[in-house]
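Q: My labmate handed me this sequence with no annotations at all. I'd like to see what the chain might look like in three dimensions before we decide whether it's worth expressing. Could you predict it?
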Amino acid sequence: MGRRIDILLLLAIGVFGIVNGAAVPKSPSMSTKDTNVPMNFTADIILRDGYFLEQHEVTTADGYILTMFRIPGSPANPIRQGKNVAFLMHGLLSSSADYVISGPGRALAYMLVDAGYDVWMGNARGNTNSRRHIFHDPDARNTNFWDFSWHEIGYFDLPAMIDYTLAYTGHTTLHYAGHSQGTTSFFVMASLRPDYNKKIRSMHALAPVAFMSNLRSPFVRAFAPFVDQLEWIMNMLGVNEFLPSNDMMIMGGQRLCEDESPFQEVCANVLFLIGGFNSPQLNRTMIPALLENAPAGASVNQLVHYAQGYNSGRFRQYDFGLTLNLIRYGSIRPPDYPLHRVTAPVALHFSDNDWLAAVSDVRELHGQLSNSIGLFRVSDPRWNHLDFVWGIDANTFLYERVISFMDRYN
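A: Here is what I predict for the chain of 410 residues:
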């Protein structure tokens, strides 16, 4: 098994190198309907599938301009006032498209809309939908735009988007569901800004990531021991964005990973190497679309912060080094996030074959939460980290249960 992983890791590196080098133009985005909403991947999908769409923008306290998508209704469940609100947050290197890409009857956002919810989807700073700032240019050299990790996403982005959503809808509370980094950032917010716990009716952590010392992903385990050197090299080179989305990546992925391509199985194994192997749950025909959505852009510091968590075995704030830690925190080591201050009702949905959210790490998180609804295992023993948003049978293995819990807390 170890030799197989080593070989696949080399293949993964080779595929991403080929994809990044495939210099081909991107075709313009097309929509099936006229709309005043600027076109992008998420909007295209929602309109294609016949659901109603609104686009909203909010500016954070530190100047980032974030895009949110709202699906207030569908032909099966028309727009009306007073619907309960469900807010969905994506994971690392991804976007709001995760919650609609599987299509009607399968994607979580659509299932919630059809169940009568007013669905809002956030986009973290730095992804393809939120690459703007009131001062900083994300594409400039030596820009301060990328000077953030998932700490700032939890401390600034989520509160800004949640406050906007509640003010716009006239509600005082909402349901929250997040995948991977969408759970990490929630725990940052709920522990450091505890007043936001009162605004959460229920929180559903899909593949929760806080403690990470037992993860099995070869990507993280390979570079985590060298994270300090990686951070220094990236800073010296002026590289602050990790795996940016670009035309070459999208079109290269489409050509290499389409159904007729001999490389399609290599593409599938790249995804398996990230989150765990579960071949029956990956719709291979959908891989080109997945690669149009992900990677959607992230800062190097987001990866570094996760690697620090793996190395330390702690869920704590960003480690800037001894000197800067003393200046920022008053101690040589960063403080742990005070998870005992998370009082929102939290349901932890986990799986045995998740290479990024190990069962033992999820159990440690559960033990530190003061108001956990409980631990809920996905019954498929092969269910992996990416199946939580892209799995063929996520609707029956997971989403129906999530919606039933939300209904219970209305």
